[in-house]
Amino acid sequence: MGKIVILDENTSNQIAAGEVVERPASVVKELVENSIDAGSTNISVEISNGGVSLIKVVDNGSGIEEDDIEIAFERHSTSKIRKASDLEAITSLGFRGEALASIASVSTVEVTSRPAHREYGRYVKIQGGTLIESNQTGCPVGTTFIVRELFYNTPARFKFLKKDSTEAGYVSDIVSRIALGNPDISFRLINNRNTVIHTPGNNDLLSTIYSLYGKETAKECMEVSYEDESIKITGYAGRPEIARSNRNYQSIYLNRRYIKNKVISSAIDEAYKTYLLKNKFAFIVLYIELNPLLVDVNVHPTKMEVRFSREQDIFRAVYHAVNNALLSKTHIRNVAISD
Ligand code: ADP
Ligand code: MG
């Protein structure tokens, strides 16, 4: 008798969830990225108990077609790519088609969605990966996801959650990073009924920085603007006076995707080297635009890590972009910095 079996779908989804859904903040990230991919201009996130008992994401995006809504929860189901070669020039934040299946396998999810051209929307409830309700419903255009009881059926995962305030901190961090990368979208984060983040969505990065980090930080930012044949870098670099004691105030976006990357971090460090004491880190928000063919985003399931095919060029460009901003000392426009 052989011993090998093929795992049932629910089990394999739960295993896959282990990679994508580590904690409430990962759920928030996936849902908000879906809202962005859907063209939303307003995205609101609400959490209770650090997101463990409730995560609610409301958007005003394209909505999901009635016929698509149940398929969206299947593993490897996506509207964003059709074939492997599409990965070479990816422009959406999502493409793996795994997030909804993973989230739904380890929680109770309710989704209500309506595309603009439909008179009614659809409501679907899924618990631990099993569909338990699906009805037509009246609702506004866009999509609302409600995720409850995260990890109720995966006690090992549940056990690793930190206290609610720590989990809420992770959620707040990810919403801030995403908001900084999308100044044209208005974001709101409500934690235990208090609004903790509210960005204007007026497509001005500096006023987004102001709304997230306050006037003192926004006042001390210098504009970054650099371009050569293959790369464009814009954003704001904080004056050395507002340097921090950790890297948490550095936000890097590659083709609008928030990333972490050692090559870029060390180029920033190098540019600030003569201005900063040891163990001090610049405040900086950088948008890097690069031909998608020169980067591989499909390195890690959370897509936070990327690989460059020409690392030296990236290093040099980031170094010069930041260094030019520091040298020019041109003070920022004082727009949007009124009380
Ligand atoms: P991916 O984002 O990788 O395509 P997901 O599992 O995150 O995979 O989502 C599956 C599909 O569900 C998406 O491709 C999209 O078509 C649809 N979808 C999910 N969330 C939304 C949303 N907020 N608005 C519109 N469509 C959505
Ligand atoms: Mg997605």
From TrEMBL:
Domain spans labelled DNA mismatch repair protein S5: 209-327
Role noted for this protein: This protein is involved in the repair of mismatches in DNA. It is required for dam-dependent methyl-directed DNA mismatch repair. May act as a 'molecular matchmaker', a protein that promotes the formation of a stable complex between two or more DNA-binding proteins in an ATP-dependent manner without itself being part of a final effector complex.
Family: Belongs to the DNA mismatch repair MutL/HexB family.
Name of this protein: DNA mismatch repair protein MutL
Location of this fragment in the whole protein: 1 to 339 of 717
